[in-house]
Amino acid sequence: MSDITITLEDGPTGGRYVAVVNGHEAEMTFSKAGTSRIIIDHTGVPKELAGLGVGVALVQRGVDDARRNGVKIIPLCPFAKAQIAKHPEWQDVLA
C-alpha cells in the first residue's frame, strides 16, 4: 500500500515508526545498539488494519532508512524478521 504515510519518532536510545490509517495507529519500535545498528523489537498493527499492508510498509520504511543511513538491522520482532526473510532485496541491511 504505497499511500501509507509513516512518521519516524527518533530518540537517543530508540524510537518508532508510526502509521495512522483510517484513524487507527500501527507502529514498529526499535532500540539503538550503538551508532551502526538498530534492533527492531516490535511491530503492532491493530486488527482493523489487517490485510492492508501496513506492517510490511513499516518494515520497508525501516529498511529504507537503515540503508540510507548506513545502519544494520537486528530483527528480533518475529514479524519484521519474517518480512525481511521474504524480501531478498532487503537482506543487505541485516546485521
Task: Describe the protein in words.
The protein has about 100 residues and is of the alpha+beta class. The chain has a single domain, classed as Aminopeptidase, CATH 3.40.630.30. Helices cover about 25% and strands about 35% of the residues. Strands 1-2-3-4-5 form a 5-stranded mixed sheet. α1 links the parallel β4 and β5 (about 70-75). About 25% of the residues are buried.
Keywords:
95 residues; alpha+beta; Aminopeptidase
SSE sequence, one letter per element: EEEEHEH
Sheet/helix structural class: alpha+beta
Q: Strand count, sense and closure of the main sheet? A: 5 strands, mixed
Helical percent range?
Answer: 25-40%
Going by CATH, the homologous superfamily would be Gcn5-related N-acetyltransferase (GNAT)
The percent range for strand residues is 35-45%
Overall average pLDDT = 95
- Name of the CATH first level: Alpha Beta
Count of helix runs:
2
Secondary structure elements and pairings:
Layout: E1 6-10, E2 14-21, E3 24-32, E4 37-44, H1 54-69, E5 72-75, H2 78-86
Parallel strand pairs: 4-5
Antiparallel strand pairs: 1-2, 2-3, 3-4
In short, what is this structure?
The chain is an alpha+beta fold and 95 residues long.
